[in-house]
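Input record, target 12 of the design panel.
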């Protein structure tokens, strides 16, 4: 291994990977904290935007380090970025199609959560063999079969 490969911008390989691991760990910790108060009560759009930003940031750090894009020609970085933009645009367009076009009338729809909750309370009050960890899947509502998760 060449001497210049052992050091990158004044940092050893171990220091570079340790700093990267710490940065990724902080990003992951923030992503987990989004599920806990006070951000748990925040709006869904805020949480989704924050998680998307953190996910994209983690992706950029990992790609830049492990794919060595920061050492390669800007042409390769541009080609990779263009592919990511096209893929992201395709995903956004697909999600827009699913939200724009309504479900057909004969589509199977999940029952409302209130109905599932009322059914569980009714089963518990009737003395049914109810396990605290049992769950009733929406597609099993009619057959009244509880499955353990």
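The sequence produced for target 12 reads:
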């Amino acid at each position: 291994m060449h001497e210049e490969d052992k050091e990158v911008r004044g940092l050893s390989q171990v220091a570079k990977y340790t700093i990267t691991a710490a940065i990724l760990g902080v990003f992951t910790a923030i992503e987990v904290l989004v599920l806990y108060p006070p951000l748990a009560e925040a709006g869904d759009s805020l949480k989704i935007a924050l998680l998307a930003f953190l996910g994209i940031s983690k992706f950029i750090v990992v790609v830049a380090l492990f794919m060595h894009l920061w050492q390669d020609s800007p042409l390769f970085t541009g080609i990779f970025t263009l592919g990511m933009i096209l893929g992201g645009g395709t995903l956004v367009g697909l999600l827009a199609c699913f939200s724009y076009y309504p479900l057909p009338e004969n589509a199977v729809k999940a029952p409302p959560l209130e109905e599932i909750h009322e059914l569980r309370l009714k089963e518990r009050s009737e003395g049914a063999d109810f396990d605290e960890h049992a769950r009733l899947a929406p597609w099993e509502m009619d057959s009244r079969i509880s499955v353990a998760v």
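Confidence is low (pLDDT under 50) at residues 144-149.
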